[in-house]
Amino acid sequence: MFGLMVRFTCKDDAAAAAFDDLVERTGEHIRAHEPGTVIYAVHRVDGRPLERVFYELYRDEDAFQEHESKDYVRLFLAERDQYLSDTEVDRLDFVSGKGVRVEQ
């Protein structure tokens, strides 16, 4: 398994709404076309209305690279920065979990 946790901070309320729309459009494609993407979850942060946290879990590094190569992901990456004031990315090394089948 390969994962990411990404924290985005939007510039303002209007930017947050536009970013959420971009996220939803991108997510539709991810759900439809990426069997190697195990989890792609986006959360609002309670008490911090401009923050979004993404939790992404991929079958393996190849599935992540496949995700990154998609046109709709490239469009997301190209458009997102206009809405954001900060981005933090953590690469995750899966240890254990519930609800996720790990094939070795």
Summarize the SSE layout with pairings:
Elements: E1 2-10, H1 13-33, E2 37-45, E3 48-58, H2 61-69, H3 71-80, E4 84-92
Antiparallel strand pairs: 1-3, 1-4, 2-3
Helix pairs in contact: 1-3
Pfam families: ABM (PF03992)
Protein name: ABM domain-containing protein
InterPro entries: ABM_dom, Dimeric_a/b-barrel
What does this structure look like?
By secondary structure, this protein is an alpha+beta fold. It has one domain: Alpha-Beta Plaits (2-Layer Sandwich). 38% of the residues lie in helices and 37% in strands. A 4-stranded antiparallel beta sheet has the order 2-3-1-4. Helix 1 runs antiparallel to helix 3. The longest helix has 21 residues. The chain is globular. The model has no long low-confidence stretch (mean pLDDT 94).
Short note summarizing the structure:
The protein has 104 residues and is an alpha+beta fold. It contains three helices and four strands, in the order βαββααβ. The longest helix has 21 residues, at 13-33.
What does the largest sheet look like?
Answer: 4 strands, antiparallel
Percentage of helical residues?
A: 25-40%
**What series of H and E elements makes up the topology?**
EHEEHHE
CATH topology: Alpha-Beta Plaits
Radius of gyration: 14 Å
Sequence of strands across the biggest β-sheet = 2-3-1-4
Distance N terminus to C terminus?
9 Å
What is the SS-derived class?
A: alpha+beta
